[in-house]
Amino acid sequence: MAGIVYLIGAGPGDAGLLTIKGAECIKKADIIVYDYLADKKLLAYAANGAELIYVGKQADKHTMRQEEINQLLVDKAGAGKTVARLKGGDPFVFGRGGEEALALRENGLPFEIVPGVTSAISAAAYAGIPVTHRKVAASFAVITGHEDPTRSASGINWRNLAVGIDTLVFLMGVGNLPHITKQLIANGRKPETPAALVRWGTKAQQEVLVTTVENAAADVEKHGLKPPAVFIVGDVVNLRDSLRWFDNKELFGRKILVTRAREQASKLTEGLEQYGAACVEAPVISIEDPDDDFAGLDNAIENISTYDWIVFTSVNGVARFFERLADKKLDTRALGKAYIAAIGSSTEKELSRCGIRADVVPYDFCAEGILAELGTRIEKGTKILIPRAKEARSVLPDELTKAGARVDVVQCYKTVTAASSDDDIEGRLAAGEIDAITFTSSSTVTNLLKLLGNKTELINNAVVACIGPITAQTCRENGIKPDVVAQKYTIAGLIGAVRRFYE
């Protein structure tokens, strides 16, 4: 049976601009064929085991020729595969989607078009430039800045275009800018007409160069602006100062290294990107099963009715505990009379998601905080279970034991050093390309150091932001100077602390 190809507009760069239908098609695909301009974050929608094929084309470097891409789609669909073809912007707006669709039709293979947000309007919007405005521009046109080189003559009607349309948006035109501006002026467009180039529009590394038609080529050369960029011509460019909203956010352009575990990095990344940061995810820790293969936790669950208190110290601890409880065909009723304590609002929320309301959540989200809260509730012989990470500090169980409690500490998981998702984190730090590094636990500090060969000077090249005083102390013990320490020891608290620092 033949497969199908979904020709999906991946949007202009901001992964959030992918359509719902586009995401659904990626999820059910056997194969993802993606372009240079398709944000790699979109690959997170792919099913486990899906084949990923990169076919990106840049001005001077083509992974595959278009004819080869066409044949690839034909071969994969012909073999019965469901293919998600991710194309930057919209597949039918200078995306050569029409050529790919025709190749499939000629071979009797089914396809669907999933429109996307084109950079022709979105890059301008993210620069604060509306392509139309009732008092300024009643029309706009989208023009290729790079025509088919096999054509014997230009397909652009320069005379009508130059003076007949209010706003002109050229895609892929940086390399041909001298020719484009020359043609516009020669055909009647005023040289002083406002113009702008938007590079990497909608992404955190967006650059905007405001100029005029006559100065555009020289200004691009002067500022070293490189593709990909759109070229916008028209009086609407003058509205940028009033409508600028994206690239004036407080963290815009700040490159921030996120070191959380891969499965937890997205919340911090999304929060920082909301304020304009460009996040580089380097998950330096990985969450794995405990050394004893859950033997200690299983034993505690079998004797769960004997505990007076269960103290959860992390979201991971909660998740692993209740996963193991479910494996034993048990639910929250098994906890019986035990009181529940949680360190941190995130841990409290995870417990709530599992159907448990914590009895105690200390104001200070650390072991010392829980000790202060439990001090008056502990008697000699009080039995306490602490399911947590192997690497956790000994302060909590030690102090509870001193207070007369009988404490069982069991491993729910362990954190190990993970291979970085970016092969050149060391190089970026050495070159000063990372503005700030976020640490959300002591293990993120020690594991990043391991990955960098204990080169503390590389970390000290950047602003160091810690989720709380314990993580900050780990930094100091390893020769790292913390510049930012959140007062509230949560992801939201860390994001707020970074924002205040840069204010």
UniProtKB/TrEMBL annotation:
InterPro entries: 4pyrrol_Mease, 4pyrrol_Methylase_sf, 4pyrrol_syn_uPrphyn_synt_sf, 4pyrrol_synth_uPrphyn_synth, 4pyrrole_Mease_sub1, 4pyrrole_Mease_sub2, CobA/CysG_C, Siro_Cobalamin_biosynth. Its EC number is 2.1.1.107. Transmembrane segments: none annotated. Keywords: Lyase, Methyltransferase, Porphyrin biosynthesis, S-adenosyl-L-methionine, Transferase. Pfam families: HEM4, TP_methylase. It is an enzyme of class 2 (transferase). One of its GO terms (molecular function) is uroporphyrinogen-III synthase activity. Residues 267-495 form the Tetrapyrrole biosynthesis uroporphyrinogen III synthase domain. It comes from the Bacteria. One of its GO terms (biological process) is methylation. Residues 5-216 form the Tetrapyrrole methylase domain. CDD domains: HemD, SUMT. Belongs to the precorrin methyltransferase family. This is uroporphyrinogen-III C-methyltransferase. The lineage of its organism: Bacteria, Bacillati, Bacillota, Negativicutes, Selenomonadales.
